[in-house]
Design a protein that fits this description.
The complex is a heterodimer. Chain A is mostly helical. Helix content of chain A is 75%, strand content 3%. A two-stranded antiparallel sheet of chain A has the order 1-2. The mean pLDDT of chain A is 83. By secondary structure, chain B is mainly alpha-helical. A two-stranded antiparallel sheet of chain B has the order 1-2.
């Protein structure tokens, strides 16, 4: 295997992984903090992609700049969904497992609602547009410029969020809640408000990733679920509530997948991600970097 | 007690006699609803008392259906149904032994992944190894045979659920649902009880899949349909998963709605199904049967 091929596979893998990082970070934030396993996560990604598509086709908006619309809009939608649905379920006086299962069912309900709304609005046909589909030459290898841009933005946002979590007051409160829920509330952290903010941030991350992805692939209302599964694999691989672990696991998965697709074939991709998910759940539910 | 027993007997008698009185379309509608009832009751058999949220119904149903397609031409009816039950049960024994250590949403995600994993593996296997994507069902049994097969399965599922509720085994299941560690401390072999019941409920699902498969003359791996898993959960929850009559009523109601609307207004139906799930989870955590039980007390107070 030549050095340039190795470089090609590595960079392609990191590009894929950078996009995974942002989706997975959103899911991890929701699960790590609220124990809400949001299987509708990929549907918000799908909606973000379609909104960008519509803004671009209808008004000629720059796809990259639409994240300034999809991000905040998704954040507000997440706040509202949390207030109307999740806060009520999480507030029920029941065993923790019962509440977790119930919030999972809630997310499945959302998945049905969002996916079929998209089917009614945008139909099941493939739709897409072309943006920055120019080749970018780097050290003898060629990468599509739009992929490099999308992965760069996704990875940049992920790292920025990680730093925000480390440095800011809200970030400290979030980390405190993840590690020590009772103690954090004792020192005055408002649980319900932070839950709302985190759910909103998670939804926003999915929608922004969707906007970025719409530059790369054609869309159907079914694009969401595979990303949910990938995000789940990443979150479980990296450890629940472990943000740095998620980032590493996303990049790792991106590279491993690229190697797999290169040497085997692409139809093995879905099988392998479900198989990996099942294996980790059985062998090491606390994740590769689990404490 | 005597009244409810008489009602049960009357319903059973009406269902046995129904094919003589109704049109062919109505009979096939009843058949579909009976299959939904069998699925929802056997789902609640395990997931109701233990609170393990299983999304594997589609996987076991699909495995049973596919088993019929593979052995169907060579075995006389009802042997394919038994084969479907065996495949479903065996699959659940393996999956249960692996996955029933997982609690809460992990188990749900694992079982959901199972149907997808089975589907994609089968698609891959069929295209790569056998070179086909589907199988034709040759010489299927007649509609009357199918009707009575599914009626028998639904009856067996309800009878099993009723018997289980009052047995030591059934109390052990409720104990596991309330506090698994305490149940273990009290000397219940929780693994055996869980895996055994999971396999029993999966055997019913596999049998239903096998019995319903001849309705389609052509089967492909899409029969591993996650919608089956969700519909079953929603039916049981709408009715109240901790009772026997709840899942049956929920299945009868939603089964009818789904047969009437799914083909004509697919997206609107699925949208409404999602909204129903959300409403049930947020507003009626114990299902419609739970409302019925609570209502008189609230009226008094």
């Amino acid at each position: 295997m030549s050095a340039s091929l190795l470089f090609d596979i590595l960079v392609t893998g990191l590009i894929t992984g950078g996009i995974y990082a942002l989706v997975a970070l959103g899911l991890n934030l929701q699960y790590g903090l609220m124990r809400v396993l949001n299987v509708a996560h990929g549907e918000f990604l799908m909606l973000g992609a379609y909104v960008t598509y519509s803004l671009h086709m209808g008004w000629g908006a720059n796809p990259l700049l639409t994240i300034l619309v999809t991000g905040p809009a998704a954040f507000v939608a997440g706040l509202v969904l949390h207030r109307l649905l999740y806060a009520r379920v999480l507030g029920q006086a029941e065993a923790r497992e019962a509440i977790e299962s119930r919030s999972l069912l809630l997310s499945f309900g959302l998945l049905f609602v969002l996916q079929n709304t998209a089917l009614l609005v945008w139909s099941a046909d493939l739709q897409g547009y072309s943006y920055l589909a120019t080749p970018l030459h780097v050290l003898g290898a060629v990468f599509p410029a739009n992929r490099v841009l999308a992965a760069g933005v996704a990875l940049g946002l992920s790292v920025a969020f990680y730093v925000y979590l480390r440095r800011s007051l809200v970030g400290k409160a979030i980390r405190a809640l993840m590690g020590e829920p009772e103690g954090a509330q004792l020192v005055g952290v408002n649980l319900t408000r932070l839950h709302g903010i985190c759910f909103g941030l998670g939804v926003a991350m999915a929608a922004v990733t969707g906007s970025l992805i719409s530059m790369l692939f054609e869309l159907t209302p079914f694009v969401g679920l595979p990303y949910t599964v990938t995000a789940l694999v990443v979150v479980i691989l990296g450890g629940l509530g472990n943000v740095a672990g998620s980032l590493l696991a996303a990049l790792l998965l991106g590279v491993v997948e690229t190697v797999g697709v290169y040497f085997a074939s692409s139809d093995i991709r879905l099988i392998s991600s479900y198989a990996v998910l099942s294996l980790i759940l059985i062998l090491k539910p606390s994740g590769l970097f689990g404490r | 007690m005597a009244a409810s027993r008489a009602l049960l007997a009357a319903v059973a008698l009406a269902l046995v006699g129904a094919p003589w009185l109704v049109t062919g379309y109505q009979r096939s509608l009843l058949l579909a609803i009976l299959a939904d009832i069998a699925l929802a009751v056997s789902w609640a058999l395990f997931s109701g008392p233990t609170r393990y949220l299983s999304l594997a119904t589609g996987a076991f149903f699909g495995a049973g259906a596919y088993a019929t397609a593979v052995v169907g031409g060579r075995l006389a009816w009802p042997l394919p149904v038994l084969a479907g039950a065996a495949v479903g049960g065996a699959m659940a024994l393996v999956v249960g032994a692996l996955a029933l250590r997982l609690r809460g949403p992990y188990f749900a995600v694992f079982t959901f992944g199972l149907a997808e994993l089975a589907k994609h593996t089968l698609i891959w296997y069929e295209t790569r190894v056998t070179g086909t994507v589907g199988r034709l069902l040759l010489s299927p049994p007649g509609p009357w045979t199918l009707y009575y097969t599914v009626l028998t399965l639904a009856g067996l599922a309800v009878a099993t659920a009723l018997l289980l509720r009052r047995s030591r085994w059934g109390y052990a299941l409720v104990g596991i649902g309330e506090d698994e560690e305490r149940a273990l401390t009290l000397g219940i072999d929780t693994t055996r009880v869980k895996v055994g019941t999971f396999a029993l409920s999966a055997a019913f699902m596999g049998a239903v899949g096998a019995a319903m498969a001849p309705r389609w003359t052509y089967l492909d791996p899409q029969v591993f349909n996650p919608l089956v898993s969700f519909q079953t959960v929603i039916m049981a929850l709408v009715g109240g998963a901790t009772t026997v009559v709840g899942p049956a009523l929920g299945a009868a109601f939603l089964g009818l709605v789904s047969e009437l609307f799914l083909l004509r207004f697919r997206y609107v139906y699925m949208l409404a199904l999602g909204l129903t799930l959300i409403a049930v989870v947020v507003a009626f955590p114990s299902g419609l049967a739970g409302i019925g039980r609570r209502a008189p007390r609230e009226r008094q107070g």
